[in-house]
Structures are given as C-alpha cells and as structure tokens.
Design goal:
Elements: H1 3-15, H2 18-24, H3 29-43, E1 48-50, E2 55-57, H4 59-86, E3 91-97, H5 103-116, E4 120-125, H6 130-138, E5 144-148, E6 156-164, E7 166-171, E8 190-193, H7 201-212, E9 218-222, H8 226-234, E10 239-243, E11 254-258, E12 265-272, H9 278-285, H10 287-293
Parallel strand pairs: 3-4, 3-5, 8-9, 8-10
Antiparallel strand pairs: 1-2, 5-12, 6-12, 7-10, 7-11
Length: about 290
C-alpha cells in the first residue's frame, strides 16, 4: 500500500468529488480513479459508493479514512522527528545519582536541561552508590551518573563538577562539637557508615584517610543512605562521616563539623565514551554552565 494511494483516497473522501480531488492533487481524473480502484482491491472491500450524481463513503471507507489520516500524519511527521532526534531535541536521557548529598547539583542539572531541551524525557534513577552507577552505565541501563570520585574510569568520560568537604556528623552534645576537628580526633569513635558492599566512594575515602593517620575506622553499623546515618547519629548510635552538603537535611540533634584535614569528596558526571545518544551530548554540553553556577 503506497502513500500516494492513501493521499488519493483522503482527497476523494474529503471532496466527495473525483474532479475536485484530481484538481487538488494536480492530476487528471482517470489515473485518480485507477488509484482508488487499486486501493479498494488491496483492502478487499469497497470504500466508496459511486453514482452518476454523487460519491459517498461506505462504512468501511469511513473507518479507513480515520486510519489513513493517521498514517499520513505520521509519515509527514517522521522526517521532522528524525531530525529532532539527531539534534538531541527529543529522546531520553537516563541519569542515575548517588543520593541526598548531591541533590542540589542534580536539580541544577535537570533545571538547565529542561530549559534548553523541554521535549527530551529525563529519567532519574536513585539512590545508587558510585560503584553501582558505574556498573549501570557499562550495562547501558543509564546514560550517565552523578557520582563521587574516584571510580574505575575505563571506557568512561568523567567531568568533575564540584568538590565537597568531608564533615563529621556528631550528636549535639558530643565532646567535639564547638571545636576544630581533624582525622586524629576520630580515633576510636564508633562510626556509622555507608554500606560496605555497594561501592560507596565515601567509605573508601574515610578508610584511606584514617589509615594515613595511623588507625582504622571503628565501623559499628551500616546505614543505607545519608539521612539514615544522620538519624542514627541523632539517636546516639555513633558518629558519621558524610559530605558537608548533607547539611541541608537538618536532622534534629545532629551537628555537622568540617574535618579540616580530610580529603574533599569530588562530585562528577560520568558517561560511556562510546555513547552516541544525541540527547546525552546535549546534557554534556551544558556542564560548563552548571559548573559556573555552583
């Protein structure tokens, strides 16, 4: 079934006159009549009732007209949609991010992307830790991840966006509240940590920083996310080491104190080097603007 046959039928169905339809299509009447006959033969039922005085649609013709219009509209839209997809103006970007301490950066990225590409679908997957996000990127389950560094970067592109100081979350009456805190002050303290089996970069940084100061962290409990760590700290279960951006969570009874000699925690956008998604390229192109506003 050819598009020209559908166009011919729609013209006749709307004009209900072969002569006017032929003029509309810039063709003579006999070839138009032949196209309609071939179309009816292909469909297998009459689409038009013809008399010497008038042309009318059969019930089959009315049903066929609705679908023919949809098909022609889709055919007309297809080249435009293809060009938009190639330009990254439509499509989908799937972004994973590491959770509550990167919300503010994630919101800025999404806001800027929405302003520039309003017709692109933006899917968010969270919360996942850095190692989990890298796995999802390699498995092509997400297009990019907003995550903490360092992570294995083979086959990936990495754009660091910001560095966040590491802070210790303390119960409000803890002995270290109100004074400068260094890593050595945390020796022997019970630490509530992120999960040890999910690729938490913060856990790795904390362990390395403690070892540089001659001790191992005393992990006493794991928590699935930053908010739970802070809640357990507020309940007196221990202390927590978290990015200072956790301060926006404002858990009662918890004080965040910067650890002056702890390494900062980098936050980056990571994506596959061979990802050809034009919508993702649009996101990456906005990163300079994102960094300028952080």
């Amino acid at each position: 079934m050819e598009l020209r046959h559908l166009q011919a039928f729609v013209a006749v169905a709307e004009e209900l006159n072969f002569r006017r339809a032929a003029v509309r299509l810039h063709m003579s009447q006999p070839p138009l009549s032949q196209q309609i006959k071939r179309l009816e033969h292909e469909v297998g039922v009459p689409l038009l009732r013809r008399t010497t005085r008038q042309v009318a649609l059969t019930a089959a013709g009315e049903a066929f007209l609705r679908e023919a219009r949809k098909t022609l509209e889709s055919a007309e839209a297809a080249p435009r949609l293809a060009r938009q997809a190639a330009a990254g103006e439509i499509g989908t970007v799937r972004l994973g991010f590491s959770g509550q301490t990167s919300y503010q950066v994630m919101l800025l990225i999404v806001r800027k992307f929405r302003e520039r590409y309003p017709d692109v679908r933006f899917e968010i997957l969270s919360p996942l830790y850095g190692g989990e996000l890298v796995d999802r990127i390699h498995q092509q389950e997400i297009d990019a991840g907003l995550l903490r560094l360092p992570v294995p970067t083979g086959g990936l592109r990495v754009r660091e966006l910001e560095r966040h100081p590491l802070a210790v979350a303390l119960p409000e009456h803890h002995r270290l509240v109100g004074r400068g805190v260094g890593m050595a002050d945390l020796r022997g303290e019970p630490v509530i940590s992120y999960p040890t089996n999910r690729g938490s970069v913060v856990n790795q940084l904390v362990q390395a920083a403690c070892l540089r100061h001659g001790f191992s962290p005393r992990f006493v409990q794991e928590a699935p996310d930053t908010h739970t760590i802070l809640s357990l700290v507020g309940a007196g279960s221990g202390i927590g080491l978290v990015p200072a951006t956790a301060g926006h969570l404002k858990v009662p009874g918890v004080v965040l104190v910067p650890v002056h000699d702890a390494p900062p925690v980098p936050l980056a956008l990571v994506w596959r080097a061979d990802d050809a998604n034009p919508a993702l390229a649009g996101l990456v192109a906005l990163l300079d603007e994102v960094v300028a506003e952080l």
